[in-house]
Design brief:
The protein is α/β, with parallel strands linked by helices and 363 residues long. It has 2 domains: 188 residues, Medium-chain alcohol dehydrogenases, catalytic domain (Quinone Oxidoreductase, Chain A, domain 1); 137 residues, NAD(P)-binding Rossmann-like Domain (Rossmann fold), CATH 3.40.50.720. The chain is built from 10 helices and 19 strands. Helix 4 crosses helix 5 and helix 4 packs across helix 9. The structure holds zinc ion (2 copies).
Length: 363
């Protein structure tokens, strides 16, 4: 089977080529991709901050329609609308046993190697192996994935909006509801109002935050956060006075939706004594933190992290769909500009430029 895919042969550039796909196995499905978001993880690879095997197809935040299913697949049928999960998990390691497939040990190995869980990629270009970003590789017209990675969506939400559920929404909302689990009435600072940050803001609103301060250098993103439930927003140079105006000691919870060592340091700094800083954004490989242990002893702060919403995506997705149906989770206004597959490079440039709203590629 052949399809068209956006290949990255070297960082900073995508080229669309026809590639060869292996036929789906008994427990795999073929998904015709309709909308795929450009996520921070993709940008790390594109910018060369993560060394990736090449050529590679990036993309993991997607929605589409099932075209074909393997003989053993019962969870979805041809014609079903689905959201991709990038964490099907092996089902057997300690992370999978505690229902955290995103922390699955074999999956983590697969991420590093640019393959699927079983070590294959199932994609080739002119006889050469094509690797997969985030064990997925969704910037293609057709995608072969494990049935467990294609979560049924039902008929309610347009696929452009559904794509966002697959990574940014699960990650951002889950960071608040599952990783932090704050009591209603809490105060919070959200660092970074990109795709994930906007969903952290919404998660905080849903969890009953009294104060949601957002810091981001891009004005359009700050305005968007205010529309989604932030009570205040500021540029990075004003964060000190903005937090002090709320409470000189800091806030109950700080979410670092960027994940750079500088923003994590900022998160810990503005967490009040006894409060919690949660790292949500993924740092560049090799990044190191410099910590003051007194923050943890004398000031009893907690520093923690979360991946993919700290829950099983198959369990968390129906909850998000429910929140969206009730109008508590806003998706439509978070969809940014969309680009056809042939203009994948432009899509990445728009995302790097800080476009408010998720930039989508529509293969
Ligand atoms: Zn992502
Ligand atoms: Zn596992």
């Amino acid at each position: 089977m052949r399809t068209r895919a956006a290949l990255m042969f070297e960082s900073g550039r995508l080229d669309v080529h026809e590639v060869e796909l292996e036929e789906p196995g008994a427990d795999e499905v073929v998904v015709r991709m309709v909308a795929v978001g450009v996520c921070g993880t993709d940008l790390h690879s594109y910018k060369g901050e993560w060394e990736r095997p090449t050529p590679i197809v990036l993309g993991h935040e997607g929605a589409g329609v099932v075209e074909e299913v393997g003989a053993d697949v019962t969870s979805v049928r041809a014609g079903d609308r689905v959201v991709l999960s990038w964490a099907p998990g092996c089902g057997e390691c300690s992370a999978c046993r505690r229902k955290r497939p995103a922390a699955c040990a074999p999956l983590s190995t697969a991420f590093g190697r640019g393959t699927l869980l079983d070590g294959r990629t199932g994609i080739s270009f002119e006889g050469e192996t094509v690797y997969r970003g985030t064990a997925t590789g969704a910037f293609q017209e057709r995608l072969v994935v494990a049935a467990g990675a294609a979560l049924p969506l039902g008929e309610t939400i347009p696929l452009e909006q559904a794509a966002l559920l697959g990574c940014a929404a699960l990650t951002g909302v889950g960071a608040v509801l599952n990783a932090a689990r704050p009591e209603p009435g809490f105060t919070t600072l959200v660092i970074g109002a990109g795709g994930v940050g906007q969903f952290v803001v919404q998660g905080a609103r849903i969890a009953g935050a009294a104060v949601i301060l957002v810091v981001d250098p891009v004005e359009g993103r700050r305005e968007q956060a205010l529309r989604l439930g932030a009570t205040a927003a500021c540029a990075p140079e004003n964060v000190k006075e903005a937090v002090r105006a709320l409470d000189p000691e800091g806030v109950d919870y700080v979410f670092d939706a960027v994940g750079a060592p500088e923003t994590t340091a900022l998160a810990l700094r503005w967490t009040r004594g006894g409060g919690t800083a949660v790292v949500v954004g993924l740092p560049a490989v090799g990044a190191k933190l410099s910590l003051d242990p007194l923050d943890f002893t004398n000031r009893e702060k907690t520093l923690t992290g979360t991946i993919y919403g700290s829950d099983d995506p198959a369990v968390a997705l129906p909850r998000l769909l429910d929140l969206a149906a009730r109008g508590e989770l806003e998706l439509a206004s978070l969809v940014g500009p969309s680009f056809p597959l042939d203009r994948a490079d432009e899509a990445f440039q728009a995302s790097l430029a800080g476009s408010p709203g998720r930039v989508l590629i529509e293969p």
